[in-house]
Amino acid sequence: MNTRKVTVEQGILEGEERAGCVIFRGVPYAKPPVEDLRFKAPRPCEKWEGVRQALEFGPQCPQMDPHEGFYGREFYNDLGYPLPEQSEDCLYLNIWAPAEKKPGGYPVAMWLHGGAFDHGFSSEMEFDGLAYAMRETILVTVNYRVGVFGFMAHEDLRREDVNKSNGNWGILDQIFALRWLRKNISAFGGNPDRITVFGQSAGAMSTQALITSPLTRGMIRSAILQSGGGYNNGLTRERSVEEANATGRQIMKLCGADTLRDLRYMPAEKLVSCLPKLYEEKGGLCFGPVKDGWVLNEGMSDSIEKNDIHDIPYILGCTSEDIAIDGITGRESALYKGNMEFARFRKKTSDENVYLYYFCRQLPGDDAGAFHSSELWYMFGTLDRSWRPMTRQDYRLSGLMLDCWTNFMKTGDPGNGWRPFDEESRFVRTFM
Q1: What is the per-residue pLDDT across 355-395, written as a single tens digit (0 to 9) for each?
Q2: CA angle 333, 339, 341 (to 5 degrees)
Q3: Residue 370 burial (C-beta neighbours within 10 Å; 0-12, 13-18, 19+)
Q4: What is the rounded CA–CA span in Å between residue 377 and residue 392?
Q5: Angle subtended by helix axes 202-212 and 169-184, to nearest 10
């Protein structure tokens, strides 16, 4: 194996070099959030002596077993891509960069995985950065805390936090990773002023929280929101502190914790085991961003109305068989209309462009169509990892989407005939 060393603020990292790309896996960006640091904002990493190997992906945050059902077959059951171990020591990121540096540095794409804020991880088999590095873009995939570990809220947690934050530990992880990149990505050949944040599903909702938060002003150059962003789409919303605290009290009851200290030192497995009962009692998404007055000062849709989100270029889109809100999918769905409304508000208040897409490729192998998350195989260039009998048309579509995504990350314009939204044409790029 050929390796490459780089120096970041914590010490020297050694990664793998292959196919004109350097890969650094399992790079720590924050101190392990264990023991007393459970349910607290992330803290800086300790420095290390000597060379730290960055050749293996880090653990996933403790979560429920994903092997069952449709998505188990789609993304999690391939023995060639075994799931990483579970551990609360999970705040790691992975970097794919071109092997040769260039003046001015490469654009950087920071990926936030989906998973309903209660599962998912940064090294899922459908994610890979080789196709990005080959297109002169650095891809970074980020682990963040999920479920109870990332979104537990309680009034005592608010009181003990110096910034009075509450229930946003996973979002604060993402912001901490963004800050780490701003400080260190130049060591990998990246331009810290050219960072695109993008994500799908809960990752898109996270991205919307980041482009709304005052904590990230001036840190993000562009953003892509896939199947989870938009205005009043019925899915992307923040929780109130009261709502989040009520869920926190419910979690304590289900876990048999009398005090926050009991919950903080409880085995991680017990915090995961309470989730099925929690979902049975509450229904719908139980976790997600909280309007706590620190990470978020106001609602995410309210911020769009008030033109109080980052004034940057955006891509938004969804799939034709995406998550159904009120039983409706396709172009009449709340997700599709929410993207359109986001673009309309932006057009009224900003000169920065918004690009809309609609992914309706009917994936081969079954009749699931363009299901929620189906575009991931394509925009990561990992069709060869899928069990599906992909065709030349699928590979051509993947290449086109990769070109569009990376063009946007470089210039703010995806090119390839994709026109920005305007009220007259309401152009939406169809991928099929």
Answers
A1: 999 999 999 999 999 999 999 999 999 999 999 999 999 99
A2: 100
A3: buried
A4: 14
A5: 70
